[in-house]
Amino acid sequence: DQQVKQNSPSLSVQEGRISILNCDYTNSMFDYFLWYKKYPAEGPTFLISISSIKDKNEDGRFTVFLNKSAKHLSLHIVPSQPGDSAVYFCAASDSNSGYALNFGKGTSLLVTP
Amino acid sequence: DVKVTQSSRYLVKRTGEKVFLECVQDMDHENMFWYRQDPGLGLRLIYFSYDVKMKEKGDIPEGYSVSREKKERFSLILESASTNQTSMYLCASSLKGHGMWANQPQHFGDGTRLSIL
To answer: B87 burial class (0-12, 13-18, 19+ CB within 10 angstroms)?
Structure first.
């Protein structure tokens, strides 16, 4: 049963605009959320994370927003650059149950010049 | 920088063979993980380990086993390879956090693309 869902398989954005990637989860025990970026033929690269005690975390051009009541998180990339074109995975864990991550199926982002 | 190294980028094996995938990390991380990635399915956890000689089943352990004899090395074993085990295999490691630092990101290797013929 998929506990982390990324309902948009793909997204296309123009360079310089904002990219918004969405993620929903079903397990209310999740308390740690992460975003990973993956290029073809490479492993996922950790981008940014957020704990359930916060609702926003920012790192340069990347901001993650968490809405616990809606069980929804989003990743904002501003401004988007062609090098951001990759597959983005949302992941979540319940720290009381261990350290394993539950991943979404990914969203492929294409940033066009 | 964390370095997670998987011994092979590409591997081709035959049905019924015993296959070993090796993973080494250089950051003294306690936790290590094996995932497989398939189109349309995302990353699925096969096995993980919190410490030397310790292992836990993930979501899809059938047909696999693991070995953690040393802290830095975590091996995935396909006991008798089958064509449905053709996939991209990803190894990851993370620190075992404590208290308010309990949550730690996992760091991934570049993957092994395994084909079973």
So the answer is: buried
